[in-house]
Amino acid sequence: MNSRCAACKYLRRRCPPDCIFSPYFPSNNPQRFESIHRIYGASNIGKILQQILPHLRAEAVESMYYEAQCRLADPVYGCVKIIYQLNQNIHHVHNQLANIQAQIAFYNAQMHGNNQIQNAELPAFVGFNNSLADQGNAFPHPAPPPSIRPPWPM
């Protein structure tokens, strides 16, 4: 035993050969243990690691480290804020996809001469932000011919 792990160094104790912390908290990265210790406490970290199967402990430590970093950065919401933002992004992209699929269906119907849809309008999707279309010439392409132009302004 040449050097103690980061956990034993931080806790100022001797590092036993079977230390549960040593595989996950090497001595060259003390900040990792410090941040997890601030959120969970050394005793709780040890209890958590002992309750988990050995092959899953590395992932558990990674998860605790990520959650601790998020909690230190945002003490109120922690990683829940990031999860919420990602869910909002998914919802927004689903709305965009639905709108684009409706536009494709509209253009396909027009191209195949479906007269029932020629004067119809596309359904409006809740929460869809057509910001790219509002940017004017964001996409340098020629305007479609009048026969297949959609009823909404381009």
Please provide a written account of the structure.
InterPro entries: LOB. Belongs to the LOB domain-containing protein family. It comes from Vitis rotundifolia (Muscadine grape). This is LOB domain-containing protein. The chain has helices at 6-11, 30-40, 42-51, 57-73, 79-111. By secondary structure, the protein is mostly helical. The chain is 50% helix and 0% strand. The protein has five helices and no strands. It is elongated, with a radius of gyration of 28 Å. It has two domains: 6-73, no CATH class; 80-148, no CATH class.
Strand and helix layout:
Blueprint: H1 6-11, H2 30-40, H3 42-51, H4 57-73, H5 79-111
Helix pairs in contact: 2-4
Protein name: LOB domain-containing protein
Domain LOB: 3-104
Pfam families: LOB
List keywords for this structure.
single chain, 154 residues, mainly alpha, 2 domains, 5 helices, 50% helix, elongated, LOB, LOB domain-containing protein
